[in-house]
Design a protein that fits this description.
CATH topology: TIM Barrel
Largest sheet: 8 strands, parallel, barrel
Number of strands: 13
Strand content: 15-25%
Helix content: 25-40%
Radius of gyration: 18 Å
Number of domains: 1
CATH architecture: Alpha-Beta Barrel
Number of helices: 11
Distance between the termini: 14 Å
Length: 301
Amino acid sequence: MSAVEALLGRIVDYAGLFPPAGLDMEAAVRNYQDALASENGRMLGTFVVPAARLGVFTEAFERVCCGEREQPWTLSVVCAGEADQRAAEDFQEGAVFLRSVETKATDRASAEAALSTPANRFAGSPGSLRGLPESRFCYVEFPPERAQEILPLLAAKGGRAKLRTGGLTSEAIPSIETVAGFLRACAAQRVPFKATAGLHHSVRGLHLLAPDGAARATMHGFINLLLAAALAWFGADAQAVQRTLAEEKATAFHADDDVIRWHEHTMTADQLELVRRDFAISFGSCSFAEPVDDLRAMGWL
């Protein structure tokens, strides 16, 4: 496995139902199906769906995806309340595996309550299809400033963290210092995480906040984020993590067969595989094409 393959395998959780794309269910399902079958399908992770729309998902899936497939689907279900938790708990679809639940918490008490619901007690739950992982996971999104009180709970309960890295306004984009602090705090507690929003582009830079709008903002890059996470995992200081997050030149990142180099840092394929397996799990994006296009422009695909 090359270093790029280790870094990018199953990295994009497809969230085409969510802004700014905001696709209807059938269009999103077709996009995911096409992406799975594409030459870069190995980059695709879960299909992200709100719990309240699981019934609509099942109908669209049965219309679009009948027949044999080489690769099963995995879902990540976004929950916001008891009704959503019950919908996730009761979900059944023979050709789809529910991989994870994503929820929000404002403090330690609400995080503990979220992790205690039946739908979120996923550690060790059996997979329904041969070859699928035998455990499900609960990601908890929380204010980054609450990391020190919530992360020890996630570590104890087997939960995972979720970081929102953007949105439809510039104010929704967290600072480099905030992201670096989150990464280092998660690494210190050995809590895996995923990121969501604002990560359509590989390297940090000035981009449109929405494809049909005019507003621009400096947005985080997913290559920056993943490599900063790798540094945090291996104990780098805040300055190194922040500098990696801040880099805006794609030419600063060099990929050879078995290593990725940037600044004074080197990560081997084995190191990156470990980081992706145990720490930097994925990022949500409402576009699959944009990350792929950016990586092609870098010469990484």
